[in-house]
Amino acid sequence: MSRAAAHTIVPAESDLLCEGCGYTLNGLPETGNCPECGKPIRESVGSDRVSPPWEAAEPGASALLRTAFQVVFHSTKFYRALATRGDRDPALTFARVQWWLAAIGFGLTFYFHTAWYLSFVGWTNILDVKILIIILPIAIALMYGLLSVTTEIAARLTTWEATYRGIRLPLPVVRRGLYYHAAHYVPVALLAAITVLGYRALLEAEVLQPASATKYLYALCAEVLVAAGYLFKTYWIGMKNMMFANR
Fold first, then answer.
1. Would the pLDDT of 17 be above 80?
2. Is 22 inside a domain boundary?
3. How many domains does the chain have?
4. Between the CA of residue 4 and those of 1, 32, 36, 165, what are the distances in Å?
5. What is the DSSP secondary-structure string of 54-96?
6. Helix (H, G, I), strand (E, B) or coil at 50
7. What gap in Å lies between CA 132 and CA 138, rounded to an integer?
8. Residue 135 contacts by C-beta under 8 Å, 6 or more apart in sequence?
9. pLDDT (tens digit, 9 = 90+) per residue, 33-45?
10. Gap between the Cα atoms of 161 and 50, Å rounded
11. Contact criterion met (CB below 8 Å) for 240 and 173
12. Side-chain half-sphere CA neighbours of 158 within 13 A
């Protein structure tokens, strides 16, 4: 990137941007088209952006599930329609629920994978069921903290990068997008937990033998790579569809 790009002026919050290309549309009639990409200006004024079910309806399990379903299975559609300047608190509450759900999955994964590993290498299984009630909640709490801290770091880095490139992505908007992005952690955690617990169950049922450990570890490594790609792709879908939003 050229040095000049670092000094690109970030559009003001009051500027009307084309949602197709980011061109400034100030002063142009809503009945016209963007002179840069031809997108109808009326599609950029923000009237099509609304609050998700979690915010529009009475908060509850139904609204939570519908919103999470939209985020996970219709990410592009969700972020194209998301009102980016909405209230922070409902989005943060949604994220906290998703972080806890994901933390439970990752906590179970960590606990049972560690227990398997210690047993595999011949160590005494210090993660005995008797102390499960102590270790597992600690692992879950640590996973929750890691997810929340990672989200905040990602939000600040995204805003910094956007500002450097002259893109209007203020921190509150990025946070709001990432709070709903938290729903993507849940299927990743669920897959990891199913893999680890399933492998352990198959070992105990003697369907698989200890010699299958290498394939099990390869499977976990592959899941880590796929999960990283999945989380980055869905993150980018969110940011791409919010960076020129006007509402």
1. yes
2. no
3. 1
4. 8, 32, 22, 10
5. HHHS-SSHHHHHHHHHHHHHSHHHHHHHB-TTS-HHHHHHHHH
6. strand
7. 10
8. 111, 127
9. 999 899 999 999 8
10. 26
11. no
12. 25
The 10s digit of each residue's pLDDT in 24-82 is 999 899 889 999 899 999 999 888 899 999 998 777 899 999 999 999 999 999 999 99
Find the domain containing 124 and state its range: 46-240
Structure tokens at 200: 């352990």
Alpha carbon distance 153, 74 (integer Å): 25
- CA contacts within 13 A on the Cβ side of 99: 21
Residues in the chain: 247
Amino acid at 24: T
| Residue matched to tokens 């069921």 | 129
Let me know: does 97 contact 83? Beta carbons within 8 Å.
no
Q: Judge whether 165 lies within some domain.
A: yes
